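worker-03 picked up job from queue 'complexes'. Input manifest follows; two sequence lines, order preserved.
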Amino acid sequence: MEKRLITLNVNGIDYELYINPKTLLVEAIRDHIGLTGTKRGCDTVSCGACTVMIDDMSVKSCSILAVQAEGKKITTVEGLEKNGELSPIQKAFLDNGSYQCGFCTPGMLMSASAFLKENEGKDVTEEEIREGIEGNICRCTGYNSIVRAIESVVKGNYKEG
Amino acid sequence: MIHDFHYLKPGTLKEALAMYAEHEDCKVICGGQSLLIVMRQGMIAPENLLDIKHLNELNYIKFDEKDGLRLGATTTHRAIEKSEVIKKYYPALVAMENKLASIQVRNWGTIGGNLAHADPAGDPAPLLIALKANIKVGSAKGERVMPLDEFFVDYFETAMEKGELVLEVHVPVTQPKTGIAYQKFNYLTNDMGIVGVAASVTLNGGNTCKDARVVLGNAGPTPRRSKKAEEFLIGKALNDDVFAEAGKIASEDCEPVADIHASEDFRRHVIGVLTKRMLKKAFEEAQGK
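worker-03 finished. Artifact:
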């Protein structure tokens, strides 16, 4: 079996991995690096549970080869908090009860974070927020509480740090 | 489970083409948003995988008022969706991209990969064919350009020969007095289309049709033009009855399959409705110009 030595930068830390090139990014993150916040759901680019950010863009880590993410800045849900404090969107999720079973939450937080970053300082509509999480499926909440949480961060109810 | 493969990572396009020529049983991966799914299902198990996602020399959006639009093969769907110049000159492209899969897929998936995958249900192909796009492919031996409507040969099969890669999509300048529209029909907004229709209408002053294209998605093994509907439209004074008749012609001039999503009859019916609506939309846009 062929193996390659690669370096993945996840949440600011360089991890050296010796892996089969068929290893998916989600497998590298969960099984090799041990960050299990990122979830493996449908495995067919449908559900969004495995969403992480690559260079601040949301992507589905179940359908990217780990070797393709080399040299890029990968952010997982574990990388959202700063100095032990939750990020604004994480706090908003807590306050708005934006999760029930919790399985979609890490992916949802990453899509929401990417959306907030992209629209920083802009006025956004509820419709745009819903489009921002179009790639993530939640089977518990009915989305309303998630949308409320994102809305409250957009309104500036939560300050960074 | 994905079968083991030998991973090839070229540093340049030249190197990629040389590697592709050298290796037997080799598939090309770019964003892999379609390829990795079929590899995981074991439907294909190539011995070699050539990665071109990182080739930035193919990652560009160029526009010139005389030459039109040129999209490098590794340009992401999201880059097209967010491009100001495309929004200004080809708004239908932006609208189509906005409804293609999800943000995450558009962030990583590429236009070249989408076309090379040749899924008859893909969104970009029908619209690009309506826009009279050309595709440039190349191998270690050289490059060639062909109209996009000659690129698709069969289900997941293209006119590319062994060793050829998609290099660029060229969309010519849209003719004056032309409207373009695309819509797919599905149950969830951003799903693959059960069927899709792209239409372009060019007016000859007044309401007479000078040129038209009707391109059907997921209505057969490849994205396909309904040339019968196009011939019917050209030279006609356009109105709702003409659009309805063109829709009827298009719905008979295709070979949709029946599957778990829809029966053949239902697909034909929706093709008729969408053709009528897209022609009307394109017509109204052309009138406003």
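worker-03 released lock.
Chain B has three domains: 6-51, 56-171, 178-287.
The radius of gyration of chain B is 19 Å.
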